[in-house]
Design brief:
With 558 residues, the protein is an alpha/beta fold. It has three domains: 224 residues, ANL, N-terminal domain (Rossmann fold); 103 residues, Luciferase, domain 3; 113 residues, GMP Synthetase, Chain A, domain 3. Helices cover 29% and strands 26% of the residues. The longest helix has 16 residues. The chain starts with a helix and ends with a strand.
Length: 558
């Protein structure tokens, strides 16, 4: 299997003038001026930047990319690999709500080099403060010395993918060149049908795993092109996403479930006029739970623009498996199954009858070039089809470890082989994967992961008068929302109880540190938060009481 990086030279040699990456800069001009980078330019400019990097980094050193999404971001990733370094896709300082996360992640990866762009160079220099060499990607004044990169090894680490959720203890997933090549191959063979040409249109941040794979890596394998634009431009006018997809004969895109709902909410009368989405063969929906109602609304509202229901593709994946684990192939309408809610809660996926309460789950399809098992998380034994357990994954796309961190719970043993323990709950029915929940209480809100213990610590730091705290997610109008329950501390009754100020401080701290808006904050009396038999806070119990509406509030979050 040819490493992805080696393919770039092939495309540069066989079709140097063909478009590789196009960036539509709505932030510079609402009209959307475009900048095109051909395969020849990608190869040439990446080599020049790699030459500069080699003066300040050694093979195996980390190179942090502190820049906004754009062509220079793509070139920085390529150049890091050409230089034999480990790329760390991050973002420019100053991104709202991400300051502490960036500082913690930067310290964890400890880069020898940093790549940014001229517009952010001053801020990056201030942030780095002399700890690493800073290179400006768009200062393309390096002469060609004739140096050419060698081949990379499949076991060499290509990049560190940091979780979007944890700021206290950042975990960088080591993705090797072998992992990357394997996963992009799995994705392309399953989801594109190995079309000879297709165009990706994406706005996802390039420091997110799905954005990096869909926008950067897929074109590397296929020699096709991608059209990119900034996430902020999508948030301002999501119809731009649809307009860039319109009229393309073979196009694909990818986004989390919340983005499809957000796009629909922001559509205005006349936005669909003149749009032709019939050429979009793949709308990948992943990175968070896929909602049946979202699929129905999106296909119904965009049907007048030619959207084909069979092009909607629910998928499952996670950073520890590079990104992609399971998904239906092309031309396969989403499968939605109504299961008996009570029996599903008891661990058995049984189809609902006419008189039973039901939970409608969306199939994420069969595993793609890898193995998936559903395992009893307590005994470690494999469960049969139709039983709910922890999802385990085994394949060439699975990471070896976290960067500089031992996590004995990351892997389990099945038949003498090492399997990734995802922490997600699900079931296999007819060879297809249905995800039912999260074993480890991970919050996934608006496409981002948040570890509850991190949020809980932030709450307690923001309000010393609070004691036991639980953070969890609830489903509101088809979307996961974050809720915090916190009791007044018995040991800090001397601290003045000011509920209004506590609510303000907690909401502000959680937003600033985690970029997370709380749907609700319940302030309870001392001792009200339920605990397990071992004395730990029961998030499950807190969530159940919240859904039942039985919390007696010590103060109102108004």
């Amino acid at each position: 299997m040819t490493p992805l990086l080696d393919r770039v030279a092939i495309w540069a040699g066989t079709k140097p003038d063909a478009a590789a990456y196009t960036f539509v800069d709505y932030l510079a001009d609402p009209g959307g001026p475009t900048v095109v980078c051909t395969w020849g330019e990608v190869h040439r400019r990446s080599i020049r930047l790699a030459q500069r990097l080699r003066r300040v980094v050694a093979p195996g050193d980390r190179v942090a990319v502190l820049a906004p999404s754009g062509l220079d971001y793509v070139l920085a990733m390529y150049a890091s690999w050409y230089a034999g370094a480990i790329a760390v896709p991050l973002f420019a300082p100053g991104l709202p709500g991400h300051t502490e996360r960036l500082a913690a992640t930067y310290a964890d990866c400890d880069p020898a080099g940093v790549v940014t762009v001229a517009a952010h160079a001053a801020d990056v220099h201030d942030f780095v403060a002399g700890r690493a060499a800073v290179l400006v990607a768009d200062a393309d004044d390096e002469p060609d010395t004739g140096w050419r990169p060698g081949s990379v090894g499949r076991d060499d680490v290509a990049y560190l993918q940091y979780s979007s959720g944890s700021t206290r203890a950042p975990a960088g997933v080591e993705i090797t060149h072998g992992n990357l090549t394997a996963n992009v191959t799995q994705l392309c063979e399953t989801l594109t049908g190995n079309r000879p040409h297709f165009t990706g249109v994406n706005w996802l941040p390039l420091f997110h795993d799905m954005g990096l794979l869909a926008s950067v890596a897929v074109p590397m394998r296929a020699g096709t092109d991608a059209v990119l634009f900034d996430p902020a431009a999508f948030l301002m006018q999501p119809v731009r996403w649809l307009r860039l997809l319109s009229g393309r004969p073979d196009a694909y895109t990818a986004a989390p479930n919340f983005a499809y709902d957000y796009c629909l909410r922001r559509l205005e009368e006349g936005d669909l006029d003149g749009l032709d989405l019939s050429g979009v063969f793949l709308w990948l929906n992943g990175a968070e739970p896929v909602r049946a109602a979202t699929l129905d609304r999106f296909t119904t509202q965009l049907a007048p623009a030619g959207l084909a229901p069979r092009a909607m593709c629910p998928a499952y994946g996670l950073a520890e498996a590079t990104v992609y684990v399971a998904g239906h192939g092309i031309d396969h309408p989403p499968r939605k199954v109504a299961f008996d809610r009570d029996r599903l809660a008891a661990g058995r996926a049984v189809r609902a009858t006419a008189d039973s309460d039901r939970s409608v789950l969306v199939s994420c399809g069969p595993p793609a070039g890898q193995r998936v098992a559903v395992v009893d998380p307590e005994s470690g034994s494999t469960l049969p089809d139709g039983r709910v357990g922890e999802i385990w994954v085994n394949g060439p796309n699975v990471t070896r470890r976290y960067w500089r961190r031992d996590d004995p719970g990351l892997f389990g043993d099945l038949g003498g082989y090492r399997w990734l323990r995802t922490g997600d709950l699900g079931t296999l029915v007819g060879g297809e994967l249905y995800v039912t929940g999260r074993l480890k209480d991970l919050l996934i809100v608006a496409g981002r992961n948040h570890y509850p213990q991190d949020v809980e610590e932030t709450v307690r730091e923001a309000a010393p008068a609070l004691g036991r705290t639980a953070a969890f997610a609830v489903l509101i109008d088809g979307e996961e929302r974050a809720v915090v329950v916190a009791e007044r501390s018995r040991s800090r009754l001397d601290v003045e109880w000011q509920p209004t100020e506590i609510v303000r401080a907690v909401r502000q701290a959680v937003w600033r540190r985690h970029d997370l808006a709380l749907h609700d904050l319940v302030l309870a009396e001392p001792g009200a938060v339920p605990r397990t038999t071992s004395g730990k806070v029961s998030r499950t119990g807190c969530r159940a009481r919240y859904l039942a509406g039985t919390w007696q509030r010590a103060a109102s979050d108004a």
